Amino acid sequence: xxxxxxxxxxxxxxxxxxxxxxxxxxxxxxxxxxxxxxxxxxxxxxxxxxxxxxxxxxxxxxxxxxxxxxxxxxxxxxxxxxxxxxxxxxxxxxxxxxxxxxxxxxxxxxxxxxxxxxxxxxxxxxxxxxxxxxxxxxxxxxxxxxxxxxxxxxxxxxxxxxxxxxxxxxxxxxxxxxxxxxxxxxxxxxxxxxxxxxxxxxxxxxxxxxxxxxxxxxxxxxxxxxxxxxxxxxxxxxxxxxxxxxxxxxxxxxxxxxxxxxxxxxxxxxxxxxxxxxxxxxxxxxxxxxxxxxxxxxxxxxxxxxxxxxxxxxxxxxxxxxxxxxxxxxxxxxxxxxxxxxxxxxxxxxxxxxxxxxxxxxxxxxxxxxxxxxxxxxxxxxxxxxxxxxxxxxxxxxxxxxxxxxxxxxxxxxxxxxxxxxxxxxxxxxxxxxxxxxxxxxxxxxxxxxxxxxxxxxxxxxxxxxxxxxxxxxxxxxxxxxxxxxxxxxxxxxxxxxxxxxxxxxxxxxxxxxxxxxxxxxxxxxxxxxxxxxxxxxxxxxxxxxxxx
Length: 549
What we know:
Structural class: mainly alpha
Radius of gyration: 24 Å
Membrane topology: Multi-pass membrane protein
GO biological process, one term: potassium ion transport
Helix content: over 70%
Protein name: Sodium/calcium exchanger membrane region domain-containing protein
Number of strands: 5
Shape: globular
Strand content: under 5%
Main location: membrane
Largest sheet: 3 strands, antiparallel
Strand order of the largest sheet: 1-3-4
Order of helices and strands: HHHHHHHEHEHHEEHHHHHHHEHH
Organism: Lactuca saligna
């Protein structure tokens, strides 16, 4: 079920955008750019309906809605699409804060993971799985897929390591919080990423890679995980020694290992083991505010119910046995429905067989959940599996929403009349990284004392995961198919340029953070954003013809 959902989401990402360095986009030959050459509303509507380049990449045909349903009222249609854009942004951010972040936090606590382990495993897995599969499929199913796969992974890496880290730094500073990042873990992640980029740069310069070289490239990630684990257990051992000589109160305050130091507020200190303060719910007075709250509650229900019915939640605050039973039963069916509506094409008979099998599995899971769970308290057995299922379904919802958001942004770009290269450089590039941005920011804001630390670790472990696993396994598959011959790397001078800017951003963080005593501040965040905007300016200038290719 998990593999099917990730596989489907990957195909959406490839078909939707496939950016080729955040500067150029591999737009298919059938595009919808000629829509502005049509003179009448009727001809535009017919063009959208008949041209394959206008087929929606998501689930809704926004161009048909704009040019057909709102052909006589284009301003109203544009407002409608903008409102839906706001709704999609809300769903994306709310799913990250209400489902994804709690799932990561509970999984890490249940597995007794430190912020370093959680940030280098769970967060990259959730944020980068689709990127990994998209890279593998791009390499193995398309003649120019190697160029697409390389640029999409590197483009995502530079966005996450500059924009996301920059936004996190500025956000933390703006909220007047002092976050001290653990120096050894930070240096480890950045140095490994720089080392990986150096190896990739050498591969690109050589222009080919053998099967054995690709295996060595992938094995770097195994070394990285072993080093992370060694540092984690070594810190655990040292911390245990400290606990043994501490008094009982100190033991209570030190139940978690502060691998990333502490998060300090200017007015009070937030300890890792400190419990959140719960405020009593205030009754809204009977005035216009009550009607406003009721209005937004009703508006939110169509957004809340589908996710609540498909994402298993076993926290005490949101515990509901009926919801859990229904969500466990509907989760497999949701994945099958998404797959079949987008890429099934198996015919009615085959589709019915798939629905029957998946539906039977869902009913069986729902029945077991109903029989073996209590109505008054969340389950206490196999909670890792429950949290893992909630984590995976929240990831599914996050990327489904992000893909639909990308489709809408692409349609808005076509309506405005932006060129495909500019769309790929801005709208599609940013849209494909919205999932990473929202999940990391939400983790920093809502993830508790260690949330920012997990998010920061994920900002470097995520790109490392994508490069070594996504590109690594892609190299393994394509080089094995050519064995004993080598796989020829597509020639693209922009690849070296992207690696250069990415390395500059990493070096900036590697120099600034130690000088600032490992504190996130405006200097770090502002510098990273300046680096990205310089990269963006060069790409835009080249796309507009102001610079040579």
